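[Meeting: bench + compute handoff]

Bench side (C.D.) handed over the final construct sequence. Compute side (W.E.) agreed to return the predicted structure before the next meeting so the bench team could plan truncations. Sequence as handed over:
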Amino acid sequence: QVQLEESGGGLVQPGGSLRLSCAASGSIFSINIMGWYRQAPGKERELVAFVTSGGVTKYADSVKGRFTISRDNAKNTLYLQMNSLKPEDTAVYYCNLRNVLTKNDYWGQGTQVTVSS
């Protein structure tokens, strides 16, 4: 089993920054994809960004140039640096880990990000 614990959410004004972290523990297969998803009220969960264990990244168009995903494989920790935040970035942000071999998905409990003046 894999456990994921997010931290770093909160309330920020438009144009501000936040950094999310996700600490993974348990039986983590070395070849995996870690990512951030978000879900706003009344909307479906959507991909924000992911990074493979080899360092390949992908971003949603809505966050390109503003968000940066990174990971520290030695610490099994995922990060999301969010800059130039907009009210439409308000959502619960979830950390995800996918075991590439088994295709199993693991989720964190989510952390609330609210962008408001």
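W.E. noted at the follow-up: DSSP finds no helices and eleven strands in the chain. C.D. will use this when planning the next construct.
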